[in-house]
Amino acid sequence: MAATLFYLVRNARALERATKEIRGKFSDVEEIVHGPTLGSCSYLRACIDEAMRMSPSVGGILPREVLPGGITIEGQTLPPGTVVGTPHYTIHHNDDYYPTPYSYVPERWMAGEANPVTGRATTEDEVARAQSAFCPFSVGPRGCIGKGLAYVEMTTTLARTLYMYDLRKAVGVVDPGEGRPDLEWGRHRVEEFQLVDTFTSAKKGPMIEFRAAAQKA
């Protein structure tokens, strides 16, 4: 949720569209509950998925131990007992699956939507390729058992926030969630939410201003 808010207040186009989607589908904040209407908010879901792609809540490796007999990976033979893994962050920034991987583009998850970076519509094959590498909750039988609940919590909370408030990046303060050009490589991207891998991702920020939205007539 923190990452989604971080990227939305830095992408006016995405924030405006997500806000319009929520306020167009609901007439009262108490209507925003888990159900078909909230589930139909496809752009909000794309905003969440794109934030989890760029700033996964578990960005490091999920370690696995090589079993007896060893294993060969990319021509490299590894002995039994070796701990291996690929960081989710690395997978999520592989441009074979996610062109312009450091750009926040919710439209990459929606077939037929105009991609504001490439200037053309996202194809179904591109969505399928993106989904095939998407693993913020891990995959397979040991994937996160709380995935469904997490999506319910995120969509409900963020939808209610967008319904009730107009948001913007905080003015006149330094956001500790931002990168800076003077920091080490990898921390230099100002528009990337900065995380620290402690198995789950530790973070500071984002700094956001909230203003109560005008009530509907």
Short description:
With 217 residues, the protein is α+β, with helices and mostly antiparallel strands. It has seven helices and eight strands.
Which terms summarize this structure?
alpha+beta, two-stranded antiparallel sheet, 8 strands
Describe this structure in words.
The structure is a single chain. The protein is an alpha+beta fold and 217 residues long. Helices cover 33% and strands 12% of the residues. The chain has 7 helices and 8 strands. Strands 1-4 form a two-stranded antiparallel sheet. It has a two-stranded antiparallel ribbon with strand order 2-3. A hairpin with a 1-residue loop joins strand 6 (196-198) and strand 7. Helix 1 (2-8) packs across helix 4 and helix 2 (12-25) crosses helix 7. The chain is globular, with a radius of gyration of 19 Å.
SSE topology sketch:
Blueprint: H1 2-8, H2 12-25, H3 36-39, H4 42-54, E1 64-65, E2 71-73, E3 76-78, E4 83-84, H5 88-92, H6 124-133, H7 147-164, E5 165-169, E6 196-198, E7 200-202, E8 208-212
Antiparallel strand pairs: 1-4, 2-3, 5-8, 6-7
Helix pairs in contact: 1-4, 2-7
Q: How many angstroms separate the termini?
A: 29 Å
Helical content class:
25-40%
Structural class: alpha+beta
Radius of gyration: 19 Å
The helix tally amounts to 7
Largest sheet: 2 strands, antiparallel
State the shape.
Answer: globular
Give the helices and strands as they follow along the chain. Answer: HHHHEEEEHHHEEEE
Strand order of the largest sheet: 1-4
Low-confidence parts: none
